[in-house]
## 1
Amino acid sequence: MLKVNNINVFYGNIQALKGVSLEVIEGEIVTLIGANGAGKSTLLKTLSGLLKPKSGTIEYLGEPISGKAPQSIVKTGISHVPEGRRVFSNMSVEENLELGAYTRKDAGGVRKDMEKVYELFPRLLERRKQLSGTLSGGEQQMLAMGRAIMAKPKLLLLDEPSMGLAPLMVKQIFNIIEQINKDGTTVLLVEQNANMALSIANRAYVIETGRIEISGTAAELQASEEIKKAYLGGL
Ligand code: ATP
């Protein structure tokens, strides 16, 4: 579904991604784990068109997408939930969800997906008239995910959905990611919480200072001594 081939991405003179290649197959949950500053967010921003690679290619559903504008990438079915769950704080929950569907013309489908989002996140239904800026951190994360679902993505890019959330909320969010995947959306999940990410992923990549250093099935990575020491807090 998605093939990233040898991309190099710079911020001015600083090279944030160094020859990164990875693949996501339709139906999978793939996770990208790595420490602070490793380049995880940079990769997602590049996939959604916010950054342009200096070299290398990105192919999505058989078509090259590197260099395309973010709006046209959204239309191809890629939806990005950025780190820090940016919601429009002076708009209501429901208005934020409606905005997520702004590229769609199928009003009936949009209404159905709104119901689906409220089913996945009953908390958002309770608070649908509330101003988004007054939601708790976890609720804002739900809203950011809900808004992305409203775009009806084929591929969902999630940037650290667990950040700053209490353990119970993290569990809930990960259950919902699995649910969204079962309903037919492919997921590329960036996480520092490697334990949780590997527990729901099919495959994983580890990125260190801009380079993919390790890749394998989630089970292989969970069993690896190197990964346990560096990322799973184990001995
Ligand atoms: P974190 O988990 O801390 O969010 P990350 O893996 O997502 O980290 P990135 O945000 O992709 O890391 O950053 C990769 C590198 O690029 C870092 O060294 C960072 O300082 C640098 N970087 C990110 N954004 C910019 C920018 N706008 N200008 C210059 N350098 C940047």
## 2
Amino acid sequence: KEGVCIDNVSFKYPNSSRAALKNVSFNINPGETIALVGANGAGKSTLVKLLCGLYRPDQGSITFDGVDLSVINKDSLAENVSVVFQDFMLYNVTARENIWYGNVKRPQSDEEIVLSAQKSGIDKLITTLPNEYDTVLGTLFKDSEMLSVGEWQRIALSRSFFNNAQLVVLDEPTSSLDAFTESRLIENFKAITKDRTAIIVSHRLSTIHLADRIVVLNERGVAEVGTPSELLEKKA
Ligand code: ADP
Ligand code: ADP
């Protein structure tokens, strides 16, 4: 079956007494963008971790184009699934090298790197080190070359642009951004999810509106599924 099938997935952390995910099922059609929403603790981050193979479901399965994501090896997983984590997971090397190291399929040339950096508007910044950035990781920065959180985020997005993975997962891509920076990045999200199957975990309405459908999680599993207009109009 094409697209993503999340079938009756349950998961409990070893040190926890209650399930983080309980009987979660939904499908994502090929090319579709899903917004994953739900209260704190509903299991959104856990589902992201299962999607990128950090954990395996205790029960149920997650397949992408018919392939079980919990059984394929790490390299093929990384070729199929590109994740932009909430905390960016950037290495303390230049943006250029972040785009390089962050991908299993290595860039073939510097031009390729510059191109993916251009797509998220950071091509002028590719020789800057993350520790010259803002305080997200609590690192000191040199004020001469300080980058904003938004620029940092865009480096993480560039990595995903370079990666041709057909499934892209954005975990709270705008949570640390102000509304202005977010609005400038919306175009990047559109570009990154275009022609790919995508999941965006987000609370922000402007980001949720990008999705074809919204999946609402709660502690009992999938609470609701619907288009943005169906769900948001109902709430209004
Ligand atoms: P969300 O991303 O929707 O806020 P999470 O996936 O982070 O939800 O959390 C789902 C549940 O799993 C919560 O009850 C949370 O406390 C628990 N949880 C998350 N991460 C861990 C962990 N590493 N160890 C134990 N419990 C965890
Ligand atoms: P998010 O904002 O994505 O929901 P959280 O702030 O809930 O993430 O979690 C931050 C980190 O703390 C994650 O790595 C998560 O796995 C971990 N975590 C969350 N809840 C617990 C818990 N009950 N026990 C241990 N670790 C947890």
